[in-house]
Amino acid sequence: MASMAPTPMPSCWEMARSAASVVVAMPSPSAWCEMDSELRLPVRATFRGSRPAVRTFASGSHVMKDLLAGFALAACVATTTAMAGNGCTVGEPVHPTSSYVLHDDGTATDKQTGLMWKRCLEGQTWDGSINACIGTASNNAWLAALALAEGSTYAGHADWRLPNIKELYSTVETCRDRPTINLEVFPTTDGGGTEVWSSSPHIESNSAWYVFFVDGLANTLPRTYPANVRLVRGGP
User: Fold this and answer.
1) Most C-beta atoms within 10 A of its C-beta, which of 7, 40, 41, 164?
2) How far apart are CA 81 and CA 131, in angstroms?
3) Number of structural domains in the chain
């Protein structure tokens, strides 16, 4: 009797990578997925009640921390020499200010991705004299957020858009907390930016992906939910 070939493990979709961590999307909340040949680290999402939980594996100490996240999001810290490091230091930025080019018009260009971001949320106004975002961030349903981006001509550019979930997640500071974002690059004066829409729809037609910048995790919301908007331009 011929032996059956093992079922190949699906690949994880890498969303973000730093010297201390790799964040991946998974094919389903209960499936294993495998990292690329450099890491070969399986990660798995499990459920806590009705919401999936994500475990973060800290290198060296192998400490695990439960986090709440969306159906397909997981995070792990590499334990291989290729991703050497002892995990995150609280308050130490993964994306330091030096990794951005800060422009006088209230935009910032990520040197690694080439993406140009509006430093303020929609509804706020950039004040270069104090390097701050003034006013209150507006809340928009998902379709309204898409339309808002399409109609923007900020700083003379007409190609602003909502970032996809991978792009939006690239602004998360995994070593920071409340908010999990570099406030020197993306300042806020009103506590806005807690929930920020991405352009990525969920498999369920009435939901879309967003990032919760209180804890830096991604999840889905009904498309009618009023959330904040941060615009981006550039990319492939």
Assistant:
1) 41
2) 40
3) 2
Phi, psi of 167 (to 5 degrees): -65, -45
Residue 180's contacts (CB-CB under 8 Å, 6 or more residues apart) are: 172, 173, 174, 213, 214, 215, 216
CA distance 29 to 47: 8
Nearest to 179, CA basis, from 166, 192, 170: 192
**CA gap 12, 33 in Å, rounded:** 5
CATH number of domain containing 117? 3.10.100
Say whether both 132 and 101 belong to one domain.
Answer: yes
In sequence order, which ranges of the chain are alpha helices (DSSP H)? 142-150, 165-169
Place of tokens 């308050």: 91
Question: What pTM was estimated for this model as a whole?
Answer: 0.65
Tell me: do 156 and 201 sit in the same domain: yes
| Interval 203-236: pLDDT, tens | 767 889 898 888 777 888 999 999 999 999 996 6
Quickly list H helices, 69-174.
Answer: 142-150, 165-169
CA–CA dist 216, 56 (Å, integer): 13
Domain span at residue 179? 97-233
Tens of pLDDT, residue by residue over 9-24, are 455 555 555 544 555 5
What is the per-residue pLDDT across 87-115, written as a single tens digit (0 to 9) for each? 344 555 678 899 999 999 999 999 989 99
Count, residues in the chain: 236
In the structure encoding, which two tokens stand for residue 84, read together? 């050497």
